[in-house]
Design goal:
0% strand, Cyclin-D1-binding protein 1-like N-terminal domain-containing protein, 380 residues, GCIP-like, A middle domain of Talin 1, GCIP-like_N, single chain, Butyryl-CoA Dehydrogenase, subunit A, domain 3, 2 domains
Length: 380
């Protein structure tokens, strides 16, 4: 078995390298497209992708635990390590990669597809590091035995043991991340992302609330060193006061505009995502709605930052332009999920089911039309 060890461990490293290449986004799409199973078989496989992904991640975590213990415990048993590596090569790793490839953009959204590919690829990279550490330990012990066959095998050094412990910890973390995203599913993934974007918008609004245009003017005056002659005829001071007053008004207008924008995130989270279960996946066009929802909600924090930055620079026209972009994205996000997931259309195209969020969305649109009036003139 010791003679087979180099072949087995090198096979593992080669296999993992090939799998990493397969998980590149463009290659992953091609891999799925080249498969030609029946439509029912494809649907079944796709539906089982997340359970398989979670099970495979848990399986890899268990195997690397065994591998690390075998590596750091004397004597080094080649046959036992071979058994673990073969299990990875023949079952765990192929299942993990297959599950990742089955999480297609069309069935799980582009963002979730990309997230899974990245997480699984990370797990493979960390696993490679561990396997290389084990290979190094095995080679060192084999060389020591060859140099002195009668010498009893000793424990590995603290540095080697620490390296293995660190490597296996990273694999555990990577496997846990894969398992978590698979367990929470696409809706859980969207919830986490929307919460992140909500916090970014909330932070930007709070920063804007704390901003004092007058303090910025004082900082600028100090920076310029109080040039002589400034304000001698009273004109400069009057202009500065007018500019500061205008900035205060623009700040007030911007905050009045952003407050309902910020409300979009908790409203959608509470009414359309949390406790939604599998409704978004089973509803007609549910994945397309989630795709649109994420695309628009993701854009808003950047637009808010740009709008605030322009306002800090006293560029109201640019700020207004980004605020209007924010409004468009927010409106599209709200409209994409205005109806309940299980709503159906009547023969005349009208929705048969409405709920509180549907009514809220209509009120929100009216509010935005009102608070955007002062923005419209500047952005035209």
């Amino acid at each position: 078995m010791a003679q087979q060890f180099p072949t087995v461990i090198n096979t593992t490293l080669t296999l993992v390298e090939q799998f990493q290449g397969t998980l590149s986004p463009s290659i992953a799409i091609q891999a799925i497209q080249t498969q030609t199973p029946t439509k029912d078989a494809t649907a079944t496989a796709t539906a089982n992708a997340l359970p398989l992904l979670s099970t495979s991640a848990v399986g890899l975590r268990a195997q690397v635990t065994k591998l690390s213990l075998l590596a750091i415990t004397a004597p080094f048993t080649h046959s036992a390590v071979n058994t673990v590596l073969r299990a990875c090569n023949e079952s765990v790793l192929p299942s993990l990669v297959t599950a990742a490839l089955l999480v297609t953009p069309s069935e799980y959204t582009k963002a979730f597809h990309s997230e899974v590919l990245v997480l699984v690829k990370t797990a493979l990279i960390e696993f490679t590091t561990l396997v290389k550490d084990v290979k190094g330990i095995a080679e060192a012990k084999d060389q020591a035995k060859k140099d002195d066959p009668k010498k009893k095998e000793g424990d590995i050094s603290k540095a080697e043991k620490d390296a293995v412990t660190l490597a296996v910890g990273r694999v555990w973390d990577a496997c846990d991340a894969v398992s978590e995203v698979a367990t929470k599913g696409i809706v859980g993934f969207v919830v986490r992302r929307v919460e992140q974007w909500r916090d970014l918008v909330r932070d930007a609004v709070e920063e804007l609330e704390d901003w004092d245009p007058e303090e910025d003017d004082e900082f600028f005056d100090d920076l310029m060193g109080g040039e002589e002659g400034a304000g001698e005829d009273g004109g400069s001071d009057d202009d500065e006061e007018e500019d500061t007053a205008a900035l205060h008004e623009q700040k007030k207008t911007t905050l009045r505009f952003l407050k309902p924008i910020a409300q979009v995130y908790p409203a959608i989270l509470n009414s359309r995502l949390k406790n939604a279960g599998d409704k978004p996946l089973s509803s007609t066009g549910g994945i397309a709605k989630l795709e649109s929802l994420m695309l628009n909600l993701q854009s808003i924090p950047d637009h808010v930052d740009e709008a605030a930055g322009a306002l800090y620079e006293n560029n109201w026209n640019k700020s207004a332009e980004y605020l209007k972009r924010t409004q468009r994205n927010a409106a599209q996000a709200v409209n994409s999920v205005a109806s309940p997931w299980d709503a159906t259309e009547s023969a005349d195209g009208e929705q048969k089911a409405d709920d509180k969020f549907t009514a809220w969305s209509k009120t929100w649109m009216k509010v935005m039309d009102e608070v955007s009036k002062s923005i419209d003139a500047a952005s035209e």
